[in-house]
Amino acid sequence: KQEVTQIPAALSVPEGENLVLNCSFTDSAIYNLQWFRQDPGKGLTSLLLIQSSQREQTSGRLNASLDKSSGRSTLYIAASQPGDSATYLCAVWGQGAQKLVFGQGTRLTINP
Amino acid sequence: DAGVIQSPRHEVTEMGQEVTLRCKPISGHDYLFWYRQTMMRGLELLIYFNNNVPIDDSGMPEDRFSAKMPNASFSTLKIQPSEPRDSAVYFCASSRHSGVETQYFGPGTRLLVL
After folding, report:
1. Is residue B97 very low, low, confident or very high in pLDDT (cuts 50, 70, 90)?
2. Contacts of B102 in chain A (CB under 8 A)
3. Is the pLDDT of residue A78 over 70?
4. Is the confidence at residue B37, as pLDDT, over 90?
5. Which residue from A62, B45, B55, B59 has the highest number of Cβ atoms inside 10 Å of its Cβ?
6. What are the φ and ψ backbone dihedral angles of B84, each rounded to 5 degrees?
7. Which of B100, B102, B110, B112 to mutate to test the interface with A (most CBs of A within 10 A)?
8. Chain B CB within 8 Å of residue A54 CB
9. Are the C-beta atoms of residues B22 and B76 closer than 8 Å to each other?
10. Where does residue B3 fall: left (phi above 0), alpha (psi -120 to 50 degrees), or beta otherwise?
11. Kindly report the CA angle at B3 between B100 and B77, in degrees rounded to 5?
């Protein structure tokens, strides 16, 4: 059974810092890994999708990497801003049970 | 496009009552997903449809839960009878042609069962 873990559960950093969020998964047989953002009381917004054959994806100040063999992904946020404050969720779509399995998320706070 | 639309946004009901949640996916999307989010269990897939046909309902917690998709633009998730432990946020999401593509989430329905 696929399990997805995100560490830390919460992170607070001052504005302007570069930061890394971590995601690990137990079964490397995946089609893709996705990073989402969730603002309080809102739905999820897709940030980046990395196919299993890819090593990274970039969108603006965000860069996501994937190391399938070790079961790890990182989301790098450059020059953080208060507007980046949200919960970030990682999810994998497995080749076995074909569905998205989510981590518990990292609650990020950027302090002005 | 208006995105995925869910109604109601908030629902408060008493234990034993029937609850119906509604979802309109993005036009042209073939896949529709129902998720439940709680503090304890996080975000869990309940069921998903491809071209209105249920594909995987292994996440549906018990017989009190049922989901239908009578056409490409409408789906319902019904709980009958509701229990306090069903209190959660229920999300609907859709994707274009494949389950492995980006999923677009609705704003969710916040359900409280007293």
Report:
1. confident
2. 34, 46, 49
3. yes
4. yes
5. B45
6. -55, -35
7. B100
8. no
9. yes
10. left
11. 75
